[in-house]
Design brief:
124 residues; 0% helix
Length: 124
C-alpha cells in the first residue's frame, strides 16, 4: 500500500519551466519503479517517463526526450519531473504512479498505485 500526492502544477507560458513533485507514503519507496503519465482533455492517458528503484535507470516518451528529466530522492520518498521548454501541447493533468513489479514499464497496467494528478496549463 502506498499513497501518492503530486504538486507543482500551474499555469506557465510557452518556453517556460516547471518542476512537479510526487510525495509517497505507505510502503518502502525504494521498492517501486516510479512513473509519470499525463492526460489531456478528451485524450487517453499517456506515458511520460519512468525511473528505476535505484534512480540510475530512466526511460522517456519521445516527446519528453531532451526537455523533461525524471529523478528521485529515496531518502525523501519523492520523485520529480523537471519540465523545460514547455509547449501548449504539454497541457494536461500529470499523474505520478508506482510500479511494484519487475523492470521499468511504460504500460499503465504495470502501475498499481496512482496519485490524484496535478494540472499543468501552458499558454501560447
Amino acid at each position: 500500500q502506498v499513497q501518492l500526492v503530486e504538486s507543482g502544477g500551474g499555469l506557465v507560458q510557452a518556453g517556460g519551466s516547471l518542476r512537479l513533485s510526487c510525495a509517497a507514503s505507505g510502503r518502502t519507496f525504494s521498492r517501486f519503479n516510479m512513473g509519470w503519465f499525463r492526460q489531456a482533455p478528451g485524450k487517453e492517458r499517456e506515458f511520460v517517463a519512468v525511473v528505476s528503484r535505484s534512480g540510475d535507470g530512466t526511460y522517456y516518451a519521445d516527446f519528453a526526450k531532451g526537455r523533461f528529466t525524471i529523478s528521485r530522492d529515496n531518502a525523501k520518498n519523492t520523485v520529480y519531473l523537471q519540465m523545460n521548454s514547455l509547449k501548449p501541447e504539454d497541457t494536461a493533468v500529470y499523474y505520478c504512479a508506482a510500479d511494484p513489479n519487475g523492470g521499468t514499464s511504460s504500460r499503465e497496467r504495470s502501475y498499481d498505485y496512482w496519485g490524484q494528478g496535478t494540472q499543468v496549463n501552458v499558454s501560447s
